[in-house]
Amino acid sequence: MDNIVKNSGDDASTVVRWQQFSVPYQFPVAFVRGLFNPANPLFADTVARGDTTKRHRCFFIIDEGLDGTALSASIKSYFQSHTGQLELIADPMFVPGGEIVKKDLAYVERMLSAIHSHGIDRHSYVVAIGGGAVLDAVGLATATAHRGIRHIRIPTTVLSQNDSGVGVKNAVNFRGVKNYVGTFAPPWAVLNDFDFLSTLPTRERVAGLAEAIKVALIRDREFYLWLEKNVDALATFQPKAEEHMVRRSAELHMDQIANGGDPFETGSARPLDFGHWSAHKLEALTNHHVRHGEAVAIGIALDTRYSVLAGLLPEGEDERIVVLLEGLGLRVWHPALDNTDRDGRLSILVGLDEFQEHLGGALTITLLSELGVGVEVNEIDSALMEQAMGWLKARERH
């Protein structure tokens, strides 16, 4: 780009040269069963990406919630079957899942220590296996060690396979503020093994459905209609329906990141955070006893009802959406929504201020104008939002 020259008087001038370049980002997102079956070449081929001149060094960090003994044995067997391509640097490191691993930087520091002690360099691979919180924490460690180490995500929950696993963000909490310390760092690859889903507790499996509903409501009416049609199959975890739900949800999240015009979130709009301003606050109010997906379901119901009250969404669509959420086993109310602060203000509404601080700039909330179409607004009427909460509470009573 040409220099921009601004003259000030006869003797002074300011020269501004704009540095401009682009860096292409691309990584595979695979859906598979039996990822560590020795006969399946996907993992080895993903690591090598055609480079057969050396053995590629890998180190695993695994969610403690998984069957570590069986998983470690499968990984070792796989590497023994692919010794020409792969080298296992050390035994896996295990870390707690959920908000514990994201509570502060302590676990990230342990990961960095392991990366350092094992001599993992920028041409080695750190592979994270676990739920979204573990992927977030490992992603932060790999993004900062050596200014970036190749990182492979293997999501093991519905929520991480259909949403967070395919994203380009990672973060942990700091001084009680959710996702305060983080980076934008695309992974080397995302490998979704559907076999992990059958090991999940029912509650965890149901909670992950909320993000599929969210992205369908803001981006794909046909997918939303498919969710309604297949509510019974999804609620009973029929493999064919569950796999389609995960793949389509992941595709929609990927499309928004790649083509939404703001992959690194430099603006204030966060369409993929539909229903999240209250969800994040509700998680904090319940000390994370409410799962993220459960909180998102309540946030979706709340913002959907508000969309109707604000005249954006036709009357009756809120009822329809709530029926879907409830049909999948998701609640749309929690008693913590009634909590108030010292000034008597509903604590959940403080989440609006915290969400704006997180976004920076103007408050921007995604609401609905129709099924499959999100719309951004910059103001929220607290009185209307309280009415929306009352509507949800009344449903819970009945």
UniProtKB/TrEMBL annotation:
<keyword id="KW-0456">Lyase</keyword>
<keyword id="KW-0057">Aromatic amino acid biosynthesis</keyword>
<protein>
    <submittedName>
        <fullName>3-dehydroquinate synthase</fullName>
    </submittedName>
</protein>
<dbReference type="Pfam" id="PF24621">
    <property type="entry name" value="DHQS_C"/>
</dbReference>
<keyword id="KW-0028">Amino-acid biosynthesis</keyword>
<keyword id="KW-0520">NAD</keyword>
<feature type="domain" description="3-dehydroquinate synthase C-terminal">
    <location>
        <begin position="208"/>
        <end position="338"/>
    </location>
</feature>
<dbReference type="GO" id="GO:0009073">
    <property type="term" value="P:aromatic amino acid family biosynthetic process"/>
</dbReference>
<dbReference type="Pfam" id="PF01761">
    <property type="entry name" value="DHQ_synthase"/>
</dbReference>
<feature type="domain" description="3-dehydroquinate synthase N-terminal">
    <location>
        <begin position="94"/>
        <end position="204"/>
    </location>
</feature>
<dbReference type="GO" id="GO:0008652">
    <property type="term" value="P:amino acid biosynthetic process"/>
</dbReference>
<dbReference type="InterPro" id="IPR050071">
    <property type="entry name" value="Dehydroquinate_synthase"/>
</dbReference>
<dbReference type="GO" id="GO:0003856">
    <property type="term" value="F:3-dehydroquinate synthase activity"/>
</dbReference>
<dbReference type="InterPro" id="IPR056179">
    <property type="entry name" value="DHQS_C"/>
</dbReference>
<dbReference type="InterPro" id="IPR030960">
    <property type="entry name" value="DHQS/DOIS_N"/>
</dbReference>
